Amino acid sequence: MNSVIYTAYHKTPIGHIKITFSAQGLRELTLVQKPEKSTPQNIELAQIYFTQLDEYFLGQRKYFDVKLDLHHLPLFHQDVLKMISSIPYGKTRSYKQLASVLGKPKASRAVGRASHNNPIPIIIPCHRVIGNDGKLTGYAYGLDMKRELLEMENPDAYKHQMALFEALV
What we know:
This protein has helices spanning about 40-55, 75-85, 95-100, 110-115, 145-155; strands at about 5-10, 15-20, 25-30, 95, 130. It is an alpha+beta fold. It folds into 2 domains: about 5-55, no CATH class; about 75-165, Winged helix-like DNA-binding domain superfamily/Winged helix DNA-binding domain (Arc Repressor Mutant, subunit A, Orthogonal Bundle). Helix 3 crosses helix 4. It is globular and about 45 Å long.
């Protein structure tokens, strides 16, 4: 399925984000040092993404309801990202828990790789995935950013992530 790919740039509290999308939905969010100029048409088409990101950073949005265009990713990767999308705002899950729920209890490393390669961070909240021991592990934009996002979502409870675990099965 070939479709036109659009890009737009948006300033957020964590920096400038490059938003890549198609008619099928959002394909990628990337933090960039220096944004390029967005065309007026792309800005108009990307407005739903801008609005929902702004609401999230203001603490007004707990989940995103934009269409995603993930068809270009391997099926397992898509399954992992769908599972990550189901993690509630302010909560965390471990790679091991996600692998177990996916029916592949020994695939926590593969889950970690899929999470690390998440093309749509924040909207697919891979920052909510942590180590089995409750420690912060791998995040494409660094552990400080991961901690900031978790603390923003749940400032009172983010002391030791094990306290946030809930049974998934």
